[in-house]
Amino acid sequence: MSSKLICFEPTCRAQFAVTEVLYNCPKCGGLLEAHYPGWNLDPEPVKSVWRARRISNAPLDQSGVWRYREIIPFLENFDHVVSLREGNTPQLAAPAAAQYGGLHRLTFKHQGFNPTGSFKDNGMTCGVAQALRLGMKRVACVSTGNTSASMAAYASAAGIEPLIFIPHGNISYGKLAQALEYGARTFQVEANFDQILALVRGLAEGLGIYLLNSINPFRIEGQKTIIVEMLDQRDWNAPDWIVLPGGNLGNTSAFGKALRELKHWGFIQKMPRLAVIQAEGAAPFYELFRASERRRLEPVGHPETLATAIKIGDPVSWPKALREVEESNGVVEKVSEQEIADAKAVIGKCGIGCEPASAATLAGMRKLTAEGVIERDADVVAVLTGNLLKDPDYIYRYHTGQLDAPDGTRIRSTFANQPIVVPNDPERIASLL
Ligand code: F0G
Fold it and tell me: Fewer CB within 10 Å: N-end or C-end of the chain?
């Protein structure tokens, strides 16, 4: 079977060889996606193969991405695959979070269990495989932190050079530390994410560097497997809703593509609805979705949120994301800094924990159930995109009453859990217990 790149724009649909280095359609500038002419998937035998691979010791089968290789068939062979055993992330029941979110039940699909602690690893193993297939020696990305951590790890593991561009002073130390430790050349640019992305796209083309932002269609293919693994773990019973945070909107695009393909081939009968949650200070997709005519996304010039992972004002994948949310009969919601902070503490208290951007999901659900958009007895899966340890500074400040929103207002520490300073005195300590 052949694989192609196809222009996502319905009026264009131009096709290109999968071995061309392209991020946008050369004809119309539209986004590209992987396309498989002659593709045919018979769900029942494929499901059995996928299940059997779970007990295989072959590295390809142990990967929670490449185990599902039939759904991402863009490679001719697997010689270029570098796996760090990505995917394989759990689904966790969280009754206390369900109650907070106004639901009878809720499960978290926790992508923070990935090797570098975020969902980016699902896509990055595919992006780096494609870079190797193209013979690239250097890869680059602009990042709010998680993409760079992931790309640094996978590129270094593959023996190619990672070049990272991040907004100076605007990513968490946990993520910056990962990039440095994994050996990436790291540039802290004095500009915001959207400005740096425009800058690096120009540089990459001129210098023959392969760009691994989520505009890269092969990363989107890898991120599809988050949905495939989720449904496999649920014995192919599709939930009513899948809730996720929205930043650059790559994940929304990937989830929608996966669901469309799985429904088309008969892996699932019902299409879950997507609920995308943005931070109030960086919510251009929310505004687009609310507009009477959803023509063009109006970028937010100065996005602001403490959930730095989703501090993006001009998300590149909005045309794909819009179509996917519409096709799934989904919704877009936005939440405040206070709502994110409190929801995050609730997820932590479930013994699960996540980074701030991920907590937007629970905050969004709480709003959507209150509004009656999500019914209380709905079957909901929320995707926690990043690990709790990505941003410990935020956590310490919240629990000690020192967390300030970008506009300077103090976040209320509704669920504060202050550490207690005590002298080395057993009686004093006992009196506090
Ligand atoms: N959650 C986390 C933890 C993220 O790191 C990101 C994106 C998102 C949600 C939003 O996902 O962009 O697919 O809508 N982080 C990117 C980065 C932009 O550079 O690490 P999206």
Answer: C
